[in-house]
Amino acid sequence: MYEKSRTVVRCAVGQTEEFNVEVGLHQGSALSPFLFAIVMDQLSEEVRQESPWTMMFADDTVICSESREQVEENLERWRFALERRGMKVSRSKTEYMCVNEREGSGTVRLQGEEVKKVQEFKYLGSTVQSNGECGKEVKKRVQAGWNGWRKVSGVLCDRKISARIKGKVYRTVVRPAMLYGLETVSLRKRQESELEVAELKMLS
Q1: N or C: which end of the chain has fewer CB within 10 A?
Q2: CA torsion angle for 14, 18, 23, 25 (degrees, to 10)?
Q3: How far apart are CA 106 and CA 88, in angstroms?
């Protein structure tokens, strides 16, 4: 679809002349993700289950099952469905996480190859832990909040700027970064306190 693609580079003094795109992938196309979603929907139709048993976002897929045997069976079904149509399940990126201590001693295999076991994994930017805790995610969100705060500290620390403007900047830049995804998390009191303490420090 993108054969013989040409592009320009926009800079401070205008645009360069057109040149051929010879390296990398075409970026920024609104059509590409739409076509990819259509293809993945068709490829996974026979093996895909409803949420929460199968969760898909672009090429990231989470498969949930009640036993290790079901995980292996579903993983093999996905592998077969994709590979017979020319796609591959990345062995190096495939991981499994067990949330049941009684199930913690075994292994999951794909075509005889052991799948890497992890205690946590990231999905859509959030960290999911095998023990059901969310402490690491809260710490990561607090750090993201501080990163946002540093970007606008020139405004937030300027005494000449009104509190109303500072509040708008804080609510627009800092707070969304710190609370991203946490509306779906059951926080403990100490984790709520971590967020509150961080916010008080940022606003003081």
Answers
A1: C
A2: 80
A3: 25
How does strand 116-117 pair with strand 95-96?
A: parallel
Q: List average pLDDT for each run of 10 residues in the chain, which is 204 residues long.
A: 76 85 64 80 80 79 86 89 85 85 72 88 83 88 95 92 93 93 86 93 88
Please give the model's pTM, rounded to 2 decimal places.
Answer: 0.64
Check if the beta carbon of residue 22 is closer than 8 Å to that of residue 4.
no
Place of tokens 């059509």: 31
What residue ranges do the domains of the chain occupy? 44-127, 133-203
As to burial, measured by CB atoms within 10 angstroms (0-12 exposed, 13-18 middle, 19+ buried), residue 138 is buried
Strands (E), the chain: 6-7, 10-11, 14-15, 19-20, 54-57, 60-63, 95-96, 109-110, 113-114, 116-117, 120-123, 126-129
Q: Could you tell me the sign of the dihedral formed by the alpha carbons of 15, 16, 20, 22, in that order? A: negative
